[in-house]
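Methods — Computational structure assignment.
A single polypeptide chain was analysed. Its primary sequence is given first, followed by the predicted tertiary structure written as structure tokens.
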Amino acid sequence: MAARTSVRVDPVARDIALMLDDTLSPNAQAALLAEAAREALGEAQDTNQQALGYVPEHETFVDGQQRQDLANLTPRSTVLFEFKLLTDIVGWIDEQLIIHSPVRTERYARSHVWFADDVEFDASRMPPAAEQYVVLNAQPYARKIERGQSSQAPDGVYEGVATLAKRRFGNVAYVGFSYRSFPGGAIGKWAQTASAEKLSRNVRGGRVGARQDWLTRQPAILIDPGR
């Protein structure tokens, strides 16, 4: 069963539009609208409980304004409930990456970097709207760890967490493992060193740009809400 969602996870949204009986008073119509909105919210929560195993938090908007409740509706009010599924996905993946990270120095565990359409953001905050979200590690040895060359992570980190996230959230958004170039952080600094340049010439060859892309390609997890 798929979680209750619209076309995209913006995050999950549910609009309530009702045709109300014009013979009722405005207060009665507003009360009827509030009752229908609560019923619709309950249905969506039940669906998400069955699909996800839990009920995600939600925010309530009335006529485009965030509200704490459904008080003071009018017969023409539009009610929108937004479920914070994207926040849950990002937060869960970020937590799992830290849990599965080698902790010899904790440098790797502190180097997971999140991007929303190539703009870095803080995973502890509400993710900004974007077409795609990417998390990768900024340390030069991230690829070695992903290949299992760490006794603390013999199966790697990113691909395993991506698999777990896909099982948990695959009915909400696309989650996949890949590699992405990241010319910043510690990997970007390393890629500018003479030893890295020599390595890229001997192993990769080709244009300078292509060699730099190869040097900075890091294991990554992709989240595509609309896919």
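Note: Strands lie at 12-16, 58-62, 65-67, 79-83, 112-116, 119-121, 133-137, 174-181, 217-224.
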